[in-house]
Amino acid sequence: MNNVLDYLSDTVKKYPDKPAFVDAGVSLSFSELKSAIDSIGTALLQEGCRKEPIIVFMDKSAKEIAAFFGVIASGCYYVPIDSEMPAMRIQKIIDNCNPKVCIADEKNLDAASKLNFKGKVFTYDELAGREPDAAALQKVHDETIDIDPIYIVFTSGSTGIPKGVAACHRSVIDYIEQLSKVLEVSEKTVFGNQAPLYFDACLKELYPTIKFGATTYLIPKELFSMPLKLVEYLNEKKINTICWVVSALTIISAFKTFKKLVPEHLKVVAFGSEVFAIKQYNLWKEACPNAKFINLYGPTEATGMSCFYVVDKEFSEGDVIPIGRPFENTQVLLLKEDGTLAEKGEEGEIYLRGTCVTLGYYNDPERTAGSFVQNPLQKSFPEIVYRTGDIARYNDEGNLLFVSRRDNQIKHMGHRIELGEIEAGVAQIDGISLTGCIYDDKKEKIVLYYTGEIAEAEVINGLKNLLPRYMLPNKVYRLEEMLFTPNGKIDRKSLKQKYYDEQ
User: Fold this and answer.
1) In this structure, are strands 163-168 and 215-218 parallel, antiparallel, or unpaired?
2) Burial (Cβ within 10 Å: 0-12, 13-18, ≥19) of residue 273
3) Distance of CA 423 to the CA centre of its chain
4) Where would you tag: which of 91, 163, 224, 379 has the fewest CB atoms within 10 A of its CB?
5) Has residue 158 got a pLDDT over 60?
6) Alpha-carbon distance 414 to 121, whole Å?
7) 85/108 Cα distance (integer angstroms)
8) pLDDT tens, 473-498?
9) Pairing of β 415-418 and β 409-412
């Protein structure tokens, strides 16, 4: 198998009328999805598109997913953008990709038409209404090889210029095969999607759905600010599998939602991207005692998640849930600063090796060379591995424990400190919901933001029993609402900007 759309070819025969992707207004069955894909793929071929980036400028919807797959059917690769993105970021993506075609929905048609690029803008409905050309699509399929790219998703760059990660059929197929085993996906799986479609996080639902004939509900974004209604939605749609960022789970558990209502159908709760505070995890475990909880870890540059840990024992506050072991066909190289492998208990940087490693950053050879590097342990032939910048160590059981980002370590009062360790300490205090810790490099001060029911002074007093003196925040601020990235993670970059703006 060398084409991700081969998943759909088998599924549409088995479950033609079953809902595949459902949003607030549209439900696409597998046969309707296939029809839209064939039409869009044909239309792009008729427009002369060949092995090139196609911008998809649509709001999160079932039709947007059909547009993604339609682009793949044409032999091109989709580049998702969204009206949530700042205009400057969108333009930088356009400048990087120099697309010939943009697909837009009616809501974003005007904005798409004003983009500064030389290509054409088509509406989704216009392309999805074309008569399919089966022979032309089959020719593209026959000529596809598994290292052909299928998408470019843009992540934040430290310089302010987004980085476009290009992934191919091979890496996505390998990822979905391994992930699906861990999540135990089947035709009975009902996903509840939280992640925006312009991030790689949505791969966990999109591709297993077409592989197994599962169903994915695209949960309305506004529900993630209404915890009780969110759980009601999970129960109404009988959602049994969720793969969410930790902060999305915490929004439910931290606001005592489970005292009123619990998810009735959840069988798999996968989480990642952030450290799950044990207090909040235990609330979820108590509310869903029969669910399988899985901690996932991995970067966009390695096609999504690369490691997993099935939580099979109790954890006490102050513990850290491991990120576990790599998926099959993926290897973790944990390297110390001297380039040697870290032993048990020693900290090292995670390098990822295997099919999961993506093609690099699109039209960005300099930054690609900085992160996609020659395997330091292999000198005999070329072998590219991805340097993550994440620090970890092995515990006594041989599982990886995430320590911090390489760029999230600070030097304060002569001590090397992980900001995540401070956040973990704060999370143990009763009355705390969400936390975000930053460092004022100019004044050399640790700054803590939090949401919760208790006063700032109580937070400081509580931390005195949990953290050494040199790790105590110098300033503590209570927020009515935490700041989040579009992906639902705590936005520490914006917290830092907020702090500097208010000084």
Assistant:
1) unpaired
2) buried
3) 21
4) 379
5) no
6) 56
7) 12
8) 999 999 998 998 877 778 888 999 89
9) antiparallel
